[in-house]
Amino acid sequence: MTQNDRMQYRKQKRLQRSAAIWSALEPFAYLLPFMVSIAIFTLYPVFNVVLMSFKEGFRMLTGQYTAIGLGNYTYVINDKYFANALTNTALYVAFVVPISTVLAVVLANLLNRKVRGMALFQTAYFLPMVTSITASGLAWKFMFSRDFGVINQVLSWFGVDKINWLQAPSWNIYALIIYGIWSILPFTIILLLSGLQNIDETYYTAARVDGAKSGRIFFRITVPMLAPTIGLVLTINTISSSKVFNELYPLFNGRPGHSYNLYTVVYYIFDQFYSKSKAGRAAAAALILFLIIFVITMLQQLIQRKWTH
Amino acid sequence: MNAKTKAHVGTLLLAGGFLLFLYGALTIIVDNAIAFSTRTATAATAEPRINESLFAGLTFAGIALMAIGLYLNHSWQTRRVVGRSLTYFFLTLGAVLMIFPFFWMFSSAFKTAQEVATFPPKWLPSRLSFDNFVIAFAKADFARYFLNSIIITASSVFFTGITTILAAFAFSRLKFPGRDLVFTLLLSMMMIPFEMLVITNYETIALWRMIDTLPALVIPFLSSIFYTYILRNFFLSIPDSLYWSARVDGASNWRYLWKVMVPIARPSLVTILLLNAISAWNSFMWPMLIINSPGNRTLPLGLYVFMTDAGINFELLMAASTVVVLPIILLFLFARKQIINGVARGGLKG
Amino acid sequence: MLVEMIGLTKHFGTTKAVSDFTVTLQDGELTSLLGPSGCGKSTVLNMLAGILPPTSGQILFDGEDVTNLAPERRGIGLVFQNYALYPHMTVLQNITFPLEIQNVPREERLQRAREMAQLVHVDKLLERKPKQLSGGQQQRVAIARALVKRPRLLLLDEPLSNLDARLRLEMREEIRRIQQQTQVTTVFVTHDQEEAMSISDNIVLMKDGYLQQQDAPQALYNNPVNQFVADFLGNPPINHLYGALKNGQFVLEDGSAAFTLPMDVTAIQAERPLVLAIRAESAEIAQPGEQAVFDALIESVYTMGKEALAYLKVGTQEMRIYIDPDEGHQAGENIRVALKQRGVFLFDRETEARLL
User: Fold this and answer.
1) C356 falls within a domain
2) Is C58 in CB contact (< 8 Å) with chain B?
3) Domain span at residue A89?
4) Do C197 and C252 fall into the same domain?
5) C148 domain-assigned
6) Does residue B40 have a pLDDT over 50?
7) Does C303 lie in the same domain as C164?
8) Would you give the DSSP letter of residue C253?
9) How far is B156 from chain A (nearest CA, A)?
10) Total structural domains in chain C?
């Protein structure tokens, strides 16, 4: 090997080495912005909220706390507003999820037929999904108005007396539920519709050739084959409905119901943390909410696995 | 009666019933419409000039006749026609109910204060005037809110787009130890509701002294695990051979990403960015926590504050609401398919 | 370009994809890497391309060690089974893409792309998107894209597998024509022996990661080094008769037939388990008085135009031979079969090594 050859060789080796170092580091360069922001705003908060929930008398910014213990949890569990929030949220979920799912199954089936004017129908059905809850909630607030509301007018055609949806505490939750169904329906229809479109056309053809009537086809083919999608919809909707919060603001002027009768779990968390500056209690309530959601999800998965063998 | 005459009678009843139904229903509708257009500005309500119950009776009689007709003639052709009509009927009914709040919002945005405060409510305004918008914009700085919303939506879309593209590329195409494990862990994070993170994130923003600033509305949402997940899946569906062809041709990873992958993934990317834009535009809880001064409000927050200030001036509230929803509705009209596609993959909520 | 692979080995965890693979490819030749799926041929190709780093061994291009060189610095062109055309670019953009990356001036880029398009006969499709092309056209574009930067080595990974039978024949000839016109050293990976036989200057036959034999196609066919090579090449597959030598005669396993072989078997140990491999065209119906003859029964006859394939029973074993369809032989007929000199091999039953 001549001197020149050797230098050439070393140069090449050096090039190869730096290329190897870069190819090992390159993925992390691509990941850096993503990972940093996820670490700060998702991973760290997950751990922090757990810690915070055990810090009694925690003060934000100074980071001081009086003791470590279960005090926040015992407070929240014994708080009658939290109990109220749990009941209201459960009631809301119990109405909104099944009703919206049944309506969505029917409507998705109608939309899945080859109808003309699909663009028009899709626009009408899916618009509530993309529009601001605050804005559409205001429209509903107006529609629910006791004296000038269009809902009471329509009801009057059937001889129903004026209902005080928004000011009479006992009616508040029904207003919230009706509005909730309307706003969750588009999303539910879309999921079910895409589930329907995944069912192979040949099943229907085969059933029709065998002489099955449309009702039978619906219950014996469509519904069972849609079962996994329905399960998914139930899970997602249960989770999102149990986080009902934003909807309260336009309907009740930012209060949880007309006379603080309609706390929901997330509103409670928010209230503790923001209005009452009790971040520890808020964290404890948030963890309880997460636990409930987690258990419900697991249960639904379990049932679904059994159901669809 | 033999089967053939039965069928004929059935068809006849169906046709007759349908005509009766049309006559009854249309008369009621047309009469109401005429009543609207001929009423004077001073008259509070428009009175129908016909005997409504008579025509309602005719309508229901038509429905009954059609039912009997169907009972007598239920050949598959008839059933098909009736089935399709019912499909359209229920679809239209549902569509009207779903769209009604928007109709109500838009129509009330043009009503006068008197027209809004009447019972029974008026379906349409008596005149087309933008007064309510002018008043609303004068009472609250909606122009400013609008600008703020545009700024945070645009920057959120831009930054999320970049972090998502880079991360999805790293998680799908580049190799590093523990890649798939890390990704699975991140996916499990999607189950955690934002409500749980909000307390700490508020604390972080406060520590950074960014409370009541516009960047604070964007910074916590710079990256999304969900969007990265969607885009990564799309990237994974692009065959390896394309990558190696480009590498052999001398393209670096960076060049391959922007010259080949991103153009191919454009439909997916557009969907993600649309979903992101919609949720940034509509976001309410986080701005409400962070923003105090009027100059930094976004549209939904501004609308909410306006409501607590304006009280029950529904005509103004509806005008302001219209301003908030209109851009998104236009976006939806233009990109309906992509948005629906994105949502079908599980997005937007949850 | 002279390509040398020396002791090339690739392990994936505990699986050994390629073992001690030493092969030299001559400049300007088209070499097929042939073998059943999973034999390691694609792994070899990927190592040549720089996509996979070898576990050990060396790759030399014209004597230069490229073993650890990144793909883009090897000067190779690559064509995949699925063509890997960029779906969002037109044909012209696809072909110019490699030049664009090398910062070739725009004018030259277009000119070279047009020349290449003419060579592969896609010059009328330049503005189309890949989706608007047939499989054969996509293949042509992929070849043009691989060749436009004038690679030292063209690598084709199962390029014809996604085409239907007729197009496959056409593209096979096209690849041969383009290769001969450009004189680029080419490696062609395939599992189809017929394809490899018809297209290559040279075949490298692999099995389980090991090189079996490297030779010109006809040499490989006529002179296999072991039973695997003999079995893998040729259609219909070579016949097997199992038996051993006794008193200079080949006796079937169960003694149901015995006959003399048309070769000198004195060197082979008697009683050793053997496989007598006979190509279908290497046996014929015997003329009276011929040597190396045995009895057989025709079980069935399949006529295919100019020739017919007869399924025979020899003792208790079976074989297929070509017969003249016009002689009117029929199932159930007893015939005598004579072996030719060529295309008859003896392999060791245990080691599969060629004995004669």
Assistant:
1) no
2) no
3) 71-307
4) no
5) yes
6) no
7) no
8) T
9) 13
10) 2
C245 and C210 co-located in one domain: no
Domain region containing C337:
239-348
Quick one: C59 and C164 in the same domain? yes
* pLDDT tens digit sequence for B56-100: 888 888 888 888 888 877 777 777 888 888 889 899 999 999 999
- Chain C partners (3+ C-beta pairs within 8 A): A, B
For residue B33, what pLDDT band results from cuts at 50, 70 and 90? low
Encode burial over A261-271: b for 16+ CB neighbours within 10 A, e otherwise.
ebbbbbbbbbb
Q: Is there a contact between B299 and A132 if contact means CB atoms under 8 Å apart?
A: yes
Count of CB atoms situated within 10 Å of the CB of C239: 21
Any idea what the CATH number is for the domain that residue C70 is in?
3.40.50.300
Q: Residue B211 belongs to what domain range?
A: 135-344
A44 at B interface, C-beta within 8 A: yes
Instruction: Mutate one of B208, B324, B325 to test the A interface: name it (highest A CB count within 10 A).
Output: B325
Collapsing DSSP states into helix, strand and coil, what is residue A92?
A: helix
- CA of C96, closest CA in chain A: separation in Å? 26
Report the chain C residue with the minimal C-alpha distance to residue B252: C72
Q: Which two tokens stand for residue A21?
A: 């170092």
Does the distance separating the beta carbons of B87 and A30 come in below 8 Å?
A: no
pLDDT > 70? residue B39: no
Residue B124 lies in a domain: no
A5 vs C contacts (CB less than 8 Å): none
Query: Which residue among A19, A49, A68 closes a domain?
Result: A68
Cβ-Cβ contacts under 8 Å, A274 against chain B: 289
Nearest alpha carbon to residue C209 among C29, C354, C22, C60: C22
Q: Is A120 on the interface with C (CB under 8 A)?
A: no
Residue C43 CA to residue C45 CA, distance in Å, equals 5
CB B317 within 8 A of CB B117: no
CB distance C109 to C96 below 8 Å = yes
B185 plus B271 within the same structural domain: yes
Tokens of residue A295, six digits = 């258990």
**What type of residue is A9?**
Y
What confidence score (pLDDT) does residue C76 get?
Answer: 92
Would you say residue A175 has pLDDT above 60? yes
Sheet arrangement for strand C334-339: C283-285, C334-339, C293-304, C307-314, C317-323
Decide: B275 and B341 in contact? Cβ < 8 Å: no
Record: contact B344-A191, CB cut-off 8 A: yes
From chain B, the residues in CB contact with A125 under 8 A are 94-95, 98
Residue A309 pLDDT exceeds 70 = no
- Assembly ipTM: 0.88
Other CB atoms within a 10 A radius of the CB of residue C338 amount to 17
Q: Is the pLDDT of residue B121 over 90?
A: no
Shared-domain flag, residues A56 and A84: no
Q: Does B333 touch chain A (CB under 8 A)?
A: yes
Chains contacting chain B through 3 or more C-beta pairs under 8 A: A, C
Q: Which residues of B touch C149 (CB under 8 A)?
A: 249
Touching check for A20 and chain B: CB below 8 Å?
no
A19/C contact by beta carbon, under 8 A: yes
Average pLDDT (B184-197) is 86
Q: How many domains does chain B have?
A: 2
The C-alpha of A284 sits at a distance from chain B's nearest C-alpha, in angstroms, of 10
CA-closest candidate to residue B276, choices B334, B224, B198: B224
Tell whether C257 and C334 lie within a shared domain: yes
Q: Choose the most confident range, by mean pLDDT, from A186-200, B7-21, C203-217.
A: C203-217
Residue B118 maps to a domain: no
Asked whether the beta carbons of residue B332 and residue A253 sit closer than 8 angstroms, the reply is no
Residues C222, C113 share a domain = yes
Q: Indicate the number of domains in chain A.
A: 2
- Does residue B153 form part of some domain? yes
Q: A-chain residues within 8 Å CB-CB of C68?
A: 16
> Average of pLDDT values for B158-183?
93
Q: Does C219 touch chain B (CB under 8 A)?
A: no
Tell me the C-alpha distance between A72 and A55, whole Å: 8
Residue type, A157: W
pTM of the full structure: 0.84
Q: Do B314 and A148 touch (CB under 8 A)?
A: yes
Is the pLDDT reported for residue C226 higher than 80? yes
